[in-house]
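dude i think i finally got it to work??
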Amino acid sequence: EADGDVLVFLAGQEDIEAVETALRKRQRLFPPSARPLLVCPLFAALPASKQELALRRAQGGARKAILATNIAETSLTIGGIVFVVDAGLAKQRGTHASDGGQLLASLLAQPISRASARQRAGRAGRERPGKCFRLYSEATFAGLAPTAVPEVARSSLAASVLLLAGWTSGSSWPMVRFSRLLARLWGRGRP
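look at this
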């Protein structure tokens, strides 16, 4: 393909580290005439100095491959990106019931929405024409939810409810709102 950097969307830090290791091993197999490949991870827990590396332009004719979570989907624009590779997954917070009936918070890889897939594709070619390579079929794309379910609808509100229940400020207005909130939540089948 033509010149340009690559932005690869992966589900999480573990996937990024695994792909980074695989790419570094594969680099040793490149012919001597190949352009250097600068592999840059980009995820929230990465130190700021390493995040900055991913955001800088590649030097010396190198092609940069940025391995990112959905942090690069909307939060920032990276110059030089011409190609996007989309795995179609993102880590999302949610709750699920344990065997004992308790609600457990979790961070699991889930399929993205069609809106997210379009947003990711839009990262390619901001400065000139680009391409997006989706690692899933058109049928899978068509079966994705149109938009993402908001985190508040995927998460337990127990901690927030307990915080509000324990809030005493000397006036009754927070408790009136709290009572209305509980009534609305119960009406929607939420605990």
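The helical segments are 13-27, 48-55, 71-74, 114-121, 138-143, 151-154, 158-166, 173-187.
im so relieved honestly
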